Structure formats: structure tokens, C-alpha cells
């Protein structure tokens, strides 16, 4: 919980610093344009990836399998879309890493290990 409070204080300060620094180099209107561009492109990619993941989950459920991989993909895409929706270059970078399928795998492995760790410590109870 402490790391979340620290992140909520540090990340916006870093974003503002990057805005000021980059705005001094390329101009403030270009920064506004880049923020809007990354937001629109990011939401478009997130929507496309989300629909594709939803369709894969439906196919998996129709064939009688649990869509575990698709659920983890969906979590990553959702979190990435939230990061892409917030203005800032750091959050946009993390958002694109979570939304794009070829860069999502390391995050999926971390999420899978986190869930497995929580289940082994009896923090998450899973019953069939």
C-alpha cells in the first residue's frame, strides 16, 4: 500500500517534469498534440486487442476450456488502456507495453507468478 501512495506522488511529478522539459524543446502545442495522439492511438489499439481477446475467450469457453490465458490478457489490456487514457509519456509507455501483444508476455508472467504466490499463501481461494 505504501508503494501505491509513493507512486501516486512521484509519477505525476515526473510526468509534469517531462512535459515542461519536452515543451521547452518542441513547444507546448506539440506536447498537447502528442498527448492526444497517443491517447487516441492507444484507445484504438486497446479496443482492438480487447475485442480479439474477448473472441478468443468465447471460443475457448465454447470448446469447454477455462479461458485463463484470455483473462490474464484482458487484465493486462484493461490496465494498459487505463494508463493510455491518462495523460503522460511515462504512463503511455507502460500502457503501450501492456496493450501490445508482443510486449505483454513479461507482464503476463509477472501477473501469473503473483497470482500463484497469493494462491500458495492461501490469500486467494480457488474452488472448482
From TrEMBL:
One annotated Gene Ontology cellular component of this protein: membrane
Pfam families: FxsA (PF04186)
UniProt entry tagged with the keyword Cell cycle: no
TM stretches of this protein: 25-46, 71-90
Keywords, comma-separated and alphabetical: Membrane, Transmembrane, Transmembrane helix
InterPro entries from the UniProt entry: FxsA
Name of the protein this chain belongs to: Membrane protein FxsA
Organism the protein comes from: Virgibacillus phasianinus
Amino acid at each position: 500500500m505504501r508503494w501505491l501512495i509513493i507512486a501516486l506522488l512521484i509519477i505525476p511529478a515526473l510526468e509534469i517534469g517531462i512535459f515542461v522539459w519536452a515543451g521547452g524543446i518542441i513547444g507546448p502545442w506539440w506536447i498537447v498534440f502528442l498527448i492526444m495522439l497517443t491517447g487516441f492511438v492507444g484507445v484504438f489499439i486497446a479496443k482492438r486487442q480487447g475485442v480479439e481477446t474477448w473472441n478468443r475467450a468465447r471460443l475457448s469457453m465454447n470448446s469447454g476450456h477455462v479461458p485463463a490465458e484470455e483473462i490474464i490478457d484482458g487484465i493486462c489490456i484493461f490496465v494498459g488502456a487505463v494508463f493510455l487514457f491518462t495523460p503522460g509519456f511515462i504512463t503511455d509507455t507502460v500502457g503501450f507495453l501492456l496493450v501490445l501483444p508482443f510486449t505483454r508476455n513479461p507482464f503476463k508472467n509477472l501477473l501469473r507468478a503473483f497470482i500463484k504466490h497469493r494462491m500458495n499463501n492461501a490469500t486467494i481461494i480457488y474452488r472448482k
